[in-house]
Design goal:
- This protein has eight helices and no strands.
- It is mainly alpha-helical.
- It has one domain.
- It is elongated.
């Protein structure tokens, strides 16, 4: 019964993620900042990224493996959704919303941003006594902002690369695709790493007091 509930929750999570990714891809291609914001609000990806560090520190191998597998499935789903929407919507020029996620980014600022989000949201989740103090639905926005649109944008640009024949245009889109993907992956790594560090410190302090 418990495994059935977990399976149902996983499929529901993936369905919500695909919906958010489709909204994000459509909005990127139509240059709709409102639509991109809506996709951030819809995206549940924070529900997977945030609990990962506490699960690893707690030594819960089953939950850690489940979250890692779900995170990988999430990344594939977001890229695939962006690619499929790009195919469905036909030929379109690169929009300003897409360019904003294709541009080179400040590595130090990105790591700092991710670390702050990771520490802030992990501390809220753990609470002073190790108890969860806020719901998972409340913590996803900050993480979704930094992950969902860039990964979806990478899927959109991937299809553009396949279709483009001129080398200059393909090179530009390849660089943009790598920048988009790197931005999201660095945010994921920064959030998880800072969450690991904070969870470890909290666990050590709790053990010392005990």
């Amino acid at each position: 019964m418990a495994s059935h509930a977990v399976s149902h929750a996983t499929w529901l999570y993936l369905a919500r993620l695909v919906i958010a990714s489709v909204v994000s891809a459509s909005s990127l291609l139509r240059d709709s900042s409102e639509g991109v914001l809506a996709s951030m609000l819809l995206s549940p990806v924070g529900e997977v990224v945030l609990p990962l560090a506490p699960a690893i520190v707690a030594g819960d191998l089953v939950e850690s493996a489940r979250l890692c597998a779900l995170l990988c499935a999430s990344l594939v789903s977001m890229v695939a959704s962006g690619a499929l929407v790009r195919v469905w919507q036909g030929r379109r020029n690169v929009t300003e919303q897409m360019k904003a996620r294709m541009a080179p980014f400040d590595m130090r600022a990105t790591w700092t941003y991710a670390a702050v989000i990771g520490c802030m949201m992990t501390s809220l989740r753990i609470g002073r006594n190790g108890a969860k103090t806020i719901g998972l639905a409340d913590v996803g926005l900050a993480i979704a902002i930094s992950i969902t649109p860039p990964i979806v944008n990478a899927g959109v640009l991937w299809i553009d690369n396949v279709r483009r024949r001129d080398a200059a245009s393909a090179t530009k889109r390849t660089e943009g695709m790598l920048n988009s993907g790197s931005l999201a992956l660095i945010n994921i790594l920064g959030i998880v790493a800072s969450g690991l560090a904070l969870s470890f410190v909290v666990r050590r302090r709790a053990s010392a007091r005990a």
